[in-house]
Known about the structure:
- This protein is α+β, with helices and mostly antiparallel strands.
- The protein is built from eight helices and 20 strands.
- α2 (92-102) crosses α3 (107-121), α2 runs parallel beside α4 and α3 (107-121) packs across α4 (136-148).
- The radius of gyration is 25 Å and the shape is elongated.
Amino acid sequence: MGFLDIDNVTKSYGAVEVLHKVDIAVEEGEFLVLVGPSGCGKSTLLNMIAGLEGITSGEIRIKDRVMNAVHPSKRNIAMVFQSYALYPNMTVGKNITFGLEMHGTPKPEREKAMKDVAQLLQIEHLLDRKPGQLSGGQRQRVAMGRALVRNPDVFLFDEPLSNLDAKLRVDMRTEIKKLHQRLGTTIVYVTHDQIEAMTLSTRIAVMFNGYVQQLGTPKEIYDTPANLFVATFMGSPAMNVLKVRLEERNGIPHAVMAGADGSERALAMPDAPAAARSYLGREVMLGIRPEAITDPEGADRNARNIQPLANTVGVTEPAGADTFVTMTLAGKDCVARMRADADVRPGQPFDFAVNMDKAVLFDIETETRIA
């Protein structure tokens, strides 16, 4: 049982079920990120926790108290919206303390709470301004201050950074991370940005079509995705997914595929999961992240199974700290991530190094990971 329990929760609109038996236990102090594409149900779930949406079946509990019929104002949660939702006619200070005033908190307590939060968020110099005089990042800090001042049991963030430009989004991400580390608060955070999910969370729930596809730590989600959707949604650039034939050679499973010239390439998988043996002689999907395909000098020195792969360079994309190389493998474009100074040129033959420790296999029909 967690601090916040989402227990077998469903949501229907008429005959259409949009959330299907969501089951998540959030521990006190945890930073849970709900991530997925638009329409996957993540904001609906957040609104159900907040009490802004009704629950069709199941229970939501905070500190073991069932919240299904509890009014939003009585749940002791605070929500930070994408749109900031600040009162334009009030000063920053008034925006921060307005909720406390509505709950009858004495003025001296309100003033102290406002000063503490303003200092924490470094917005003391903004307290007398109106929202219209602030930048997007400053408005988001004020919205966070309004939530923090209430000292709630759970903070809910609904895509709070999506209106900010790229640099400011990175800066605010760092601020939210620092804030969580400093305060140890329980946070449920919704985003469609998988980089935000990976960098902020202690655990991630990847959602698609109203189902939680996988729940785990960022490392678990990234290294051992439960299915092809999670594998390709999480990570940038996305995981390479190639159709290969699994064959046994010298007692070892090999992933066999065609190279850029159409001739056969085989990558040994001595540490393939035991279940993979039942797929010998059949086609499976091989998943491998771009950073696991590189030049020999850049290969992970701690890896147990670096496999050579002779192929032809297709396109090179310098990206500052890295060079991305696209090649054809198994009839598809495949991306490799190399050092910035790797000597690669379009059209040249090249000996790639593939870290097969990082390879993952998926069933073609069910699209689930072969474990």
